[in-house]
């Protein structure tokens, strides 16, 4: 058993070594940094435009403003990841079985690498904020969720494998905007509004569909 385990480890390192060329490593690092920058910009923009659309924003305490803006870049990443994943899974020829002989689980591309890298940047940023402000933005469960997400995406990125399945998981981020909108409406005292009810219905349908697709 030990010999077999060692063979698997060597094989895995060999796959990573063959895939992780210097040019790809630079692309990955730039993508991760781009993801962090994306979060920073979305965070700041959320803080600027929120008072324009909701006057009650300025009455929030610092903790509420922090989470409001944090959910702003969470929503932006969710839309970015979901739309990008949908493109690669449905419209791109990267995972089209009729166009390539290589197994789907072994396929990757520079654009899909960028998407994964930027998602890594998002999870790093969000996890850093959660740790820095703990427990304001979430408890230990978020450590596990983000930690496992980072582990899976990083492994897929540096090996160039199973990106197809990682993208399917990232597509499920499409439900995140509904979750965040529910929180926004809650803190804005809009729980009795029609929008709150419709959003709840959309969130339920979204989760139902996402549980069926895989």
TrEMBL record:
Query: What is the organism field in this record?
Result: Artemisia annua (Sweet wormwood)
Spell out the protein name for this chain: TRAM/LAG1/CLN8-like domain-containing protein
What domain of life is recorded for the organism?
Answer: Eukaryota
- Please classify the protein's predominant subcellular localization into one broad category: membrane
- One Pfam annotation reads TRAM_LAG1_CLN8
Transmembrane region(s): 26-54, 75-94, 114-135, 195-213
| Gene Ontology CC | endoplasmic reticulum; membrane
- Specify the taxonomic lineage: Eukaryota, Viridiplantae, Streptophyta, Embryophyta, Tracheophyta
Compartment(s): Membrane
Topology in membrane:
Multi-pass membrane protein
Query: Where's the TLC domain?
Result: 63-214
UniProt keywords (A-Z) are: Membrane, Transmembrane, Transmembrane helix
Q: Which GO terms describe its biological process?
A: lipid homeostasis
